[in-house]
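Recall from the previous chapter that SMILES is a line notation for molecules. Here it describes PQ2.
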Amino acid sequence: MPVLLNLTGRRCVVIGGGPVAERKAMMLVAAGAETVVVSPAITDGLLRLLKEQRQGVWIEREYRHGDLAGAFLAFAATDRTEVNAAVAAEAEAEGIPINDAGDGARGNMITPGVLRRGGLVVAVSTSGAGPAAARELIREIDQHFGEDYEQYIDFLSSMRAFIKERVSDPGRRKRLLRRLAESDILTSIRGGGFHRWDEAAMIAWIEEQTEE
Ligand SMILES: C[C@@]1(CC(=O)O)C2=NC(=C\c3[nH]c(c(CCC(=O)O)c3CC(=O)O)Cc3[nH]c(c(CC(=O)O)c3CCC(=O)O)/C=C3\N/C(=C\2)[C@@H](CCC(=O)O)[C@]3(C)CC(=O)O)/[C@H]1CCC(=O)O
Ligand SMILES: NC(=O)c1ccc[n+]([C@@H]2O[C@H](COP(=O)([O-])OP(=O)(O)OC[C@H]3O[C@@H](n4cnc5c(N)ncnc54)[C@H](O)[C@@H]3O)[C@@H](O)[C@H]2O)c1
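With both inputs in hand, we obtain:
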């Protein structure tokens, strides 16, 4: 069951500082998490992120039991199986979800390949069968989702908020939201002929749907 987590301000701990840890930490910082990396050495990319941009904290030493205190999520990404296993055991004991980059099955959460277009999120997972294949599929999907989707999601977001604010009857609201999802706005955005709707246009659309 894939879920999207809101990580804003949440403490997330990454153990290890190689390219794999860098990928996980970048994702956490982008999600607004309070990111903590514990590792005696880190990649240049992580150094830039954590020290120069001050987006997160680098604890410059090996993992110690207790490093996961207060963590919302934990990531074990060292190149040492016994360390990753110890991190996984601490997380398990503390009830903290754990991603083990060296052994997907030992952890209880895996990171899928992800494509984002504004609010649109496409995730691809092979359930650990072939992570490189997940990455390739994302590249393929990437070609099918242009910037037009970003505009489309923006439009859906403002229109949905407007409908929720103006239409109180649940049945009518549901019908309108379904019509909205079925509308050909995306086609018109793609054709280049779409202009942001003002309040009058939104009201007109709602009335048009109600008349039919
Ligand atoms: C999608 C992506 C997201 C991300 O990491 O953020 C991701 N792996 C990526 C790339 C990648 N990983 C590996 C290669 C080398 C080729 C190969 O082996 O196939 C490449 C390709 C590359 O680097 O180009 C090796 C590898 N990966 C795992 C193991 C251990 C094991 O098998 O359990 C080993 C063997 C290690 C060893 O040999 O020791 C485990 C996991 N990797 C996952 C995710 C989770 C399952 C996702 C799924 O399948 O749904 C899972 C279970 C746990 C996790 O890490 O969450 C990311 C694409 C990022 C992007 O888009 O750029
Ligand atoms: N999940 C994935 O996507 C994926 C992809 C490739 C490899 N892997 C696995 O993940 C592991 C890490 O990959 P990498 O390329 O980043 O490895 P790496 O060897 O480049 O980096 C390992 C990092 O772990 C740190 N480290 C070592 N011992 C530590 C300790 N006791 N406490 C804290 N940090 C410690 C090192 O300082 C280093 O920064 C690999 O060994 C492999 O098993 C996973």
